[in-house]
Amino acid sequence: MWLIDQLVEQHIREAQAAGELDQLPGAGKPLILDDDSHVPPELRASYRLLKNSGYLPPELEMKREAVELDALLQSLEPDDQRYQPNLKRLTLLEMKLKQAGLSTGFLDGEYRHHVKQRFAENN
Questions:
Q1: Would 50 disulfide with which of 12, 21, 55, 123, CB 3.0-4.6 Å?
Q2: Is 8 helix (H, G, I), strand (E, B) or coil?
Q3: Positions of the chain with pLDDT lower than 50, given as ranges
Q4: Where are the domains of the chain?
């Protein structure tokens, strides 16, 4: 163990013994940890740093955008002029996610019914 690690551990033990850590927010509650088991260990620190800075890997950014588009499409009527361009964008995102090997099961909105209906009409 490094000298700095030992000093930090010593300060933590002293603070705990003095009761200085008892009133911290979330004390006594389980930690909510992100599951980063799918990220290689050598990349976890950099991914966490990017995530905490508000950046997402491209696949997760596409998922986030797809969820937002899905919600938007559910709030629009099919004859709304914004519906078709957003439907096309969501369909493209879904294809990209599938190509990346990611599940698109989270997209079960009304747009899916519309896409299947249009596909059936065109074939």
A1: 55
A2: helix
A3: none
A4: 58-118
